Amino acid sequence: MNILERLAALRALMKAKGVWACIVPGTDPHASEYMAEHWTEMSWITGFLGETGTAVITQDQALLWTDSRYYLQAEAELKGTTVELMRESDIDCPSIPEWLCKAKSERLEAKVAVNPEMYSVNGYRELKATLEEGGLELVSIDLISPLWTEGRPAIPTSLLYEYEEKYTGESVESKLTRVRQALTEKRCDALVVSALDEIGWLLNIRGKDVDYTPCLISYVVVEMDKCTIFVAPSKLDDAARAYLNRIHVCVQDYDQVFDYLKDINASSIMYDGNKVNEALFESINCQLSTVHCSPSPVLKMQSVKNATELAGERLAMHKDAVALTRFLRWLENEFAGERREAKGEKQEHTEITLAQKLGEFRAMGENYTDDSFCTIAGWKGNGAIVHYHATPEECAKIEGDGVLLLDSGGQYLDGTTDITRTIWVGNPANIPAAVKRDYTLVLKGHIALACARFPKGTRGNQLDVLARQFLWAEGMTYGHGTGHGVGHFMGCHEGPQNIRTDNNPNPLQVGNVCSDEPGLYRANEYGIRIENLIAVRESKNLGAHATGETFFEFETLTLCPYDTNMMDLSRMTAEEIAWVNNYHAWVYAEVAPLLNKEEAAWLKEKCMPLAV
What we know:
Blueprint: H1 3-17, E1 21-25, H2 41-46, E2 54-58, E3 62-66, H3 71-77, E4 83-87, H4 96-104, E5 111-114, H5 121-133, E6 137-140, E7 161-162, H6 165-168, H7 172-185, E8 190-193, H8 196-203, E9 205-206, E10 219-223, E11 227-230, H9 238-246, E12 249-252, H10 257-263, E13 268-271, H11 278-283, E14 290-293, H12 297-303, H13 307-334, H14 337-343, H15 351-363, E15 368-371, E16 376-379, E17 402-408, E18 410-412, E19 415-416, E20 419-425, H16 433-450, E21 453-455, H17 464-472, E22 483-485, E23 494-499, E24 513-516, E25 519-522, E26 526-529, E27 532-538, E28 551-556, H18 574-591, H19 597-606
C-alpha cells in the first residue's frame, strides 16, 4: 500500500472501532533512543523518515508534528500524502492535545486511540488527563499492527552474548542483590525492567538489535527468589543459554511477559513510569498486586561506574585518541591548499566522506564494534544546526576556508566515547576575529566546568552556569544542555544525572561520567561546540582552610588537542592558558607512544605550549 491507501485503511478500521482520532508516535515499547525498524509505525503511516515525529490521523485530516531540525525533510517526504506538517518548534504551533480538543467540536465519537506499547505509563496518563479535560476519551488500541502485515521488518534477532566480568567489574549476582535490597527498602518484591540499557547492565549481556547501542530487545522481571528474561528464542544459541543458566536467570519468550505479569506472585510491583510502557502496566492484575511507581534503581546503579568500568573508559579514550589524531592529520593534509595544488590533486570531500573516513580510522582500533551515534560533520552553516544529520543527497562539499564542527563517538568493548571538536579548515590566517571570539568564549566555559570543585550533593543544574557565564556576559547562549550522562559500552546518552539548566533532583555522584559540551551557533554561518567526557571523583587536596565537608571534582577523560589557531589568547586568563598547556602536555604524553613517528611529530606540533 502507498501512503494514501494506508491512511484509507486506517480510517476504515478506526470507524469500525468507533474511534475518531489515532495518535501514532515515533517510539518503541522500550523508550529507546534508537529503535528497531519493526516499530517505525509513524514513518509507515506518513512516509516521514525523520527520527522524531508524532502523527495524528482523524477521518478527515492527517498531521505530523516534528521539530525544526526536520522541517525541510518533512516537507519533501510528505508531498502527495495529504499529511500536513505541524511545526512544533514554532511558538504558535498547538500541542497535539490542544489541537485534538479544539478539533473535536461536537463530535459524538470522542475516542482517541493509541497503541499502549508505544507510550510510557507517565506519558499515557498525562495525555489521558489532558484529553479528558477537553472532553475526549483515550483508549488503548493497536490500530497499526492489523494493517502493517506485509513488508514489516521483523524484530531483530541478533544473538545475546555475555559481556564479561573483566569489562563490567561486577557479577550479575552482586547486581541482583543490590536491586533486591533497593526493592526491600521500598517494600516491593518485584521489579519490571523494560529499558534495554538497564537490562544489558543488570545481566551483563549485550546484543546488536539497534543502531549505535549494543543492546538486546527483551524485558526482565526481578523477584526476590528469581529473575526472568523475556526474549525471543532465536536470540539464544547454546552459549547464551548456558550463560543464562549459569547466572540463574529463567527464560521465557518475549511476548509472554504480559501473561506473566497477570499471574505474578508478588504483593507489590515496582516500575519506572518514565520507561515501562502502558501495555505492561495494564497487564498487571491490580487485584493481586499493588503497584509502586518509582525511578528504576537499576538506572542509578549503572550510572555510577566502578573502577573496572572507569579503567575501561580510559582505555577506550586512548584508542579513540589514536583514531582522532590520524583523522585530524589526514584532514589537514587533504586541505593543505598549496600541497594539493602542487600535486594536482582535486579530491572532493563532503560532510559524508569526512564522517566515513573518521569511521575507518576508528574501526582500526582494538575492540571497536560500532560508532556510538551517527557522526555529525557540520560544515559552515550546517554546523549551526545542533543535531544536524547529513545525507548523501543533502550534504555540503568541503571547500575553501571555514569552520567544521565534528561530533562523533565510538563503541569499544572497553567503553563508550563521545567527543566534539570544532576545527578551522583552510588557511589559519583567514580566521575571522568573530570566529576566534566565539570559539574562545565557548572554550572558557568548557574549561570552567572541567575545573569545577563542588560539595557532595551538588546537582548538575547548579554547575551549568559555569559553562555559560562567558557567553551570557556578552549576550549569547545556546539551547541544548551542557552535559549528559554516558554509558559504559552502552548508550551514549544515559541518566539520571546531567548538566543543564533544567532542574534535575539527582545529585552528581563519584563514578558518574558526563559530557562537558558548551556551544554557540550562528544560523547560516557556523556552529562551535567543544566536548570532552569527564568523570566525577572525590577531591583530595582541599587546602588548609577546608571545613571538613566532602568535595567532588571532575577528571577529564578525553584525549584530543583543541584547535589553537581558533583561540583569541587576549581573551584568556593566564590560568586558562596554563590549563590548555597542561591538557595538551597530557594528551601528547599519553597518545604519542601509540602512534608512529610521523603521527607523533604531528601531534607534538598541535600540543605545543601556548605563550602565557
